[in-house]
Amino acid sequence: MSKLFEKKKDLFIATGFVWIFLLVLALASPCSAQADPFAQLKQSLISDGYSQERIEALFGEKGAQFDLSSATGYFRHRESTLNYDQFLSAQSIAAARAYRARHMETLRAAQARFGVDPEIIVAILLVETRLGAFTGNRAVFSTLATLASLSHEPNVVSLWEEVNARFQTERSAVKSWSERRSAWAYRELKNFLDFTQAQGMDPLGVVGSYAGALGFGQFLPSSAMNYAVDGDGDGVIDLFSHADAIFSIANYLKNHGWEPVMTKPRLREVLFTYNRSRPYANTLISIRTRLKEAP
């Protein structure tokens, strides 16, 4: 009986060690590690050449926040429901005229360089940010990082649960949207990191829209990388500077087909590249017409 007892004792101890081992494996498993919603995203950025030290610092304690409200904004936002008439009110047009007069020297300089008339630049600034008054209040880095992390299934589930609780959305629709949006956001995030580094900006300190657009002209990071220019000659591109925003908008339009003389349909096509919305483009044309009229 003594030997049998010893064997049972040894089996019990061995079994205990097995359970402890399995528990340790579970705690160290990929599922547990994914408590960090940015784990896969960070690894992708490092694999694409960004230093691990920089990435870990950006995603550190005071860095990126996993904020699904930026993603749910896409499901709340419907272009057809936006009130574009507000930008054609007498008060809005008066503000646009005052802005044009205040920045006319810069607007004329941009026109001389790119051929884009002041009125359409002012119209874009009016609709995008109320002439620079409202540029958004979301951390661009966190916004883009959250959207980019939606390539990871647990994050998609979290998004669907949040969206479905408010809007009764099919899970398959959220998943399909997440796949497309995460790929787009990942490219924009890399452009954002490159742009802020080139301009000596703290990426964690830049705020913008729920879509990750920044500055007075609401440029996406890819547009900032390709079309933003230094308008005031200080050696830095600051899209929160009126001169740089004005010149950058003019450069963007020039590179997307703007010509000093265009038919209305062609004008609409060029403006459609700035924001792929017919009501948006039509509103810009109407504002431009009003501004060209005598007050």
Outline the fold blueprint:
Elements: H1 2-27, H2 30-33, H3 39-47, H4 52-58, H5 69-76, H6 90-102, H7 104-114, H8 118-129, E1 138-139, H9 140-148, H10 153-167, H11 171-198, E2 207-208, H12 221-227, H13 242-255, H14 264-272, H15 278-292
Antiparallel strand pairs: 1-2
Helix pairs in contact: 5-10, 6-8, 7-13, 8-15, 9-11, 10-11, 11-12, 12-13, 14-15
Q: Would you write up a description of this structure?
A:
- The protein is mainly α.
- It has helices at residues 2-27, 30-33, 39-47, 52-58, 69-76, 90-102, 104-114, 118-129, 140-148, 153-167, 171-198, 221-227, 242-255, 264-272, 278-292; strands at residues 138-139, 207-208.
- It has one domain (64-292).
- A two-stranded antiparallel ribbon has the order 1-2.
- Helix 5 crosses helix 10 (153-167), helix 7 (104-114) packs parallel to helix 13 (242-255) and helix 8 (118-129) packs across helix 15 (278-292).
- The model is unreliable at 11-15 and 17-33 (pLDDT under 50).
